[in-house]
Amino acid sequence: MALPSLTLLGQSLLSGLFIGALYGLLGLGLSLSWGMLRQINLAHFALAFLGAYLTYQLAGAGMDPLATLAVVVPGFFALGALMHWVFARFSVSAFNSLLVTFGLTAIIEALIQWIWTADFRRLESGYGEVKFRIGALYVALPELLTLAMAVALSLLTWAWLRYTYTGKAMRAIAEDAPIAAAFGVNVRGLSLLLSGLSAAFAGVAGLCLALSYTLAPAQIYAWLGVVFAAVMLGGLGNPLGPLVAGIVIGVSEALTMALTAPAWAPLVSFSLLIIVLLARPGKI
Amino acid sequence: MRWHALAGFAAAGIALSAVPFFGLPAFYESFLYLVFHWVVLAVSWNILSGYSGYFSFGHGAFFGAGMYTTATLATKAGVPFLWTLPAAGLVAALFGIALGAVVFRVPRLRGELFALLTLAVTFVLATVVLNTPIDGGPGLYLSAVPLPAIGPSPSSIFYLLALAAALAALWIAREIHRSKLGTGLFAIHDDEDVAEVLGVPTYRYKLAAFGVSCGLAGVAGGIQAMFISYVTVGETFSIAVPLYVVLMSVLGGSRHWFGPAVGAAFVTGLLYAFTAGDYAVAGRAAVGLILILVILFLPEGIFGEAVGWLKRRHRLSATPAAAPVIDVADIPAPAAAAAGKGGGEPMLEVRGLSKAFHGVQALAEVDLEVRRGEILGLVGPNGSGKSTLINVVSGYFRPDSGRILFEGRDLAALEAHRIARVGLARTYQIPRPFAHLSVLENVALPAMFGRGALKRADAEGEARRWLAFTGLAAKARSLPGELNLHQRKFLELARALASRPSLLLLDEVLSGLTHAEIDDAIRLIRAIRDQGATIVFVEHLIRAVMELTDRIVVLSYGRVIAQGDPRGVMREPDVVTAYLGKPYA
Amino acid sequence: MLEVERIQVSYGAAPAISEVSIRVGAGELVCVIGPNGAGKTTLINAIAGLHRIEAGALRLDGRDLSRLPQHAYCDRGIAIVPEGRRLFTGMSVRENLELGSYRRGARARRAESLERVCGVFPVLRERLAQPAGSLSGGQQQMLAIGRALMAQPRLLLLDEPSLGLAPAVVLAVFSVIKEINAGGVAVLLVEQSVAMALEIAARAYVLEEGRIAAEGRPDELLAQPHIRRAYLG
């Protein structure tokens, strides 16, 4: 096992950073709805992919990829709110929400395959062509965009929860919803808002997926495990958690790939997760 | 009854194994193979996840372990195909037991965390298999492996093996369902902590169920490996197995041993119909939709709802609702000789017991003793530590310091489920019956797992006697949810008594009852003591305390502030102050 | 101001309280005492909107409360200090107080209310940035009361404020409650600790096994055997 060159190491770290940012972006919505609403949305990934395919479709029809957000975000927001409404209406427990979204994932995946087939799809956009150079290292624009989105959304959510009145009300709901309501907080309304926001974040993650990766329906599950690991390691409901944990995982994976064989990378996140779950499940 | 079932299974087995000989189109054999294959997977999954409520999303890992064991042994070690099957089952079972041994020790890993952990394990195993010489990437080809020739066509062997596996899985599931292990698993499903305190060895039982479940999945994997003859990591460890077994069991009904088989047949049929019509993709969507609808509307599953509906109809037509009447005449023989009122030598000694929660000292250096044959009242204002004391003595919480000696034995050293065997039982302030077990099964459980360790038939007989004693005989087949608060409290009592305790701890058994019901309860408690049990009675209702108790202990802020004769103690200045404040003293 | 008329509330099949009627006039300090399990918390939770009533009427200033969604109770001027405090323990003291004034009517005067509450409870001012969970029992009780005060209520509901507190702290809490009432806020206090409650109340009700057993002024009640019998037998 020869030690790779510094350049290679640096490039690996950089790509680990970017993929970690994508883990964080994918995990943000999931962490929020799980931590604050006790809704475990397994379908978050399928939604993200749906968003990716929609971006691909709309961009193929001539729209600028970034502009597709104008369509995807509101649509997904409505979907997310609807999902929470159904969960509330049927008093679905946290565990059952896992099962229901399991089913929803299958439906969305089937929908994707029906419309776009199982063939690989790649969005060719101007963005993909642009590359920056930092010293000996290369950075592609889509990756930079992903990082920017992930950081921006995480920080904005964090700021919203920490500094605004409604954000604090949301945190109160997560702690003790009936007492929050006793002080005038509209629990129902805010919960719908948060659920919608989580789904909208999935849509944004979809855009980043479409810009950087080749899409195929089977890919939905490839991200599932790693992102769950990032969400749990980062602490449920913590808006900065998935990003930080995601980057840690991404960089560890990249290093593992550079120093050993690429295929061992998935082991990193799961091993980390299993260790954390066994060592201190109380964190979650 | 057993013979009927055995005969039924044998008949079905013979009838179905004749199918390949009818010369039907190959379609039927393949379809039925698939049905049997999924029956094994769903039924085996249900043994742990349906019965005990520990939903595993990792059934695919054990299935995959079995597949790769067969593939590896057959191609690389030249082991004859049929011999690889027990190996596949064994490897999968051992893998499951190893995982369970670690995971089940961690009390917080239940529910969704357990599900996600098992899902993670699947991915880890897939990665390991992919990157080591086990597979390495290209997959394993089994087409060169010789097949034993049984039956008219070369592929009949798979049909027959799958049939045998399905029958075996169903039989095992049925046996477990009816056994002590099954009852224990169902109790764990409803309330694991209470089950543990009643004497169910929860750790061992979960491990056993997990091992059996994984072993069967491994065997199904082994058969499938040969059937498809080309094994790859992607196909083996895909999301299909975990998703479908969950759906099939939930759809069919996860509380019954046959439910998953119904679900398996239904879903396989559905998927086949879609694939045949070139709508494979839509098939998967339909599967997802059905899962959602079932979770929202049919929580017991198709088979479960049907069985439940039949049971309810049978119950409603059979027995009329009767008011509980205490039939003190039909009392089971005393467990220990009554030492008469007032109490004999100390039976339970508590020395220097302390327990704190989040900085609040709930119990501080509590010293007290309970004498044989007495009814000891434990009183004190709200928050004085009465319930905490009961919880610590009965093993629900571990004390921070101090000793609890029960008939000379140090209880703090015992595991919770052993405390029931020692002769100590308790009731809960808010009744915690096993919601999905009938009243009779609720009371029979401690008789099976407690000191007497009776067989099911004897335990049920014993349970009936206790139900008669507490006036609940008419409700034996009802579910706890159908009882009112008074009846549920008496159910708690009957359940505590069924383990034949020599010391009974009653935690606010009278709260929420009406006047008449309280009089009933007082008579019952007296009768229990007259039979030979010693009772510690935590209560707020002072008139009941005065009527029943021989001695009382008063707690305030976690300390004992007075003990002795009830009337006298309640007049003591310290006690009056504790309750009403200084002006009254 | 507050009229509770023959209400019934159940948990599951059996009623926890039934045929309970109480009145609280504007600016009055009324307490409800009774042994544990009598239904005191159920009563106060029903008045705060935390639990639905099955029968009877609940009126504030003549208007029916029972049809309102839970988050509208606060708007009408009711604030609760729940049993066991139920603070937002992961959030800071300041944030807990800010959430107290979440309702529209109180929001604009938040800064002013915060000043006033810190004046009443100086110990909170020093700890504004600390997480609520790190406070001692007595300080948490102060915070819970402060949080309710931030809502600028006309009726303050307190559920067993003495629970889990050392006697000296209880004295401090009760003198604060008296002060608040002196400032014009009506108070309905539910307590297990008789002496403290009767010392500050203008009127009292005795709740026993889910029903009102007696009512009257403290001196009237002390003269009757009900209380002693209910608690001590």
Provide the fold topology.
The complex is a heterotrimer of chains A (284), B (585) and C (233).
Chain A: H1 6-37, H2 44-60, H3 69-89, H4 94-116, H5 126-129, E1 131-134, E2 137-140, H6 141-163, H7 165-182, H8 187-212, H9 220-234, H10 241-259, H11 265-279
Antiparallel strand pairs in A: 1-2
Chain B: H1 2-17, H2 26-52, H3 59-76, H4 81-103, H5 111-131, E1 140-141, H6 156-178, H7 180-197, H8 202-228, E2 230-231, H9 233-236, H10 240-252, H11 259-276, H12 280-297, H13 301-318, E3 346-357, E4 360-371, E5 375-379, H14 386-393, E6 401-406, E7 409-410, H15 416-422, E8 424-426, H16 439-449, H17 456-469, H18 485-497, E9 503-507, H19 515-530, E10 534-538, H20 542-548, E11 551-556, E12 559-564, H21 566-571, H22 573-580
Parallel strand pairs in B: 5-10, 5-11, 8-9, 9-10
Antiparallel strand pairs in B: 1-2, 3-4, 3-6, 6-7, 11-12
Helix pairs in contact in B: 1-6, 2-6, 2-7, 2-8, 2-10, 2-11, 3-4, 3-5, 3-8, 4-8, 6-7, 6-8, 7-8, 10-11, 10-12, 10-13, 11-12, 16-17, 16-18, 17-18
Chain C: E1 2-11, E2 14-24, E3 29-33, H1 40-48, E4 55-60, E5 63-64, E6 78-81, H2 93-100, H3 104-107, H4 110-120, H5 122-125, H6 137-150, E7 155-159, H7 167-182, E8 186-191, H8 194-200, E9 203-208, E10 211-216, H9 218-223, H10 226-232
Parallel strand pairs in C: 3-8, 3-9, 6-7, 7-8
Antiparallel strand pairs in C: 1-2, 1-4, 4-5, 9-10
Helix pairs in contact in C: 2-6, 4-6
With helices defined by DSSP (H or I, 4 residues minimum), what is the helix count of chain C? 10
**How many structural domains are formed by the residues of chain A?**
1
Please give the order of strands in the largest beta sheet of chain C.
6-7-8-3-9-10
Q: Which percent band covers the strand fraction of chain C?
A: 25-35%
Fourth-level CATH superfamily of the largest domain in chain C? P-loop containing nucleotide triphosphate hydrolases
Cα-atom Rg of chain C, whole angstroms?
17 Å
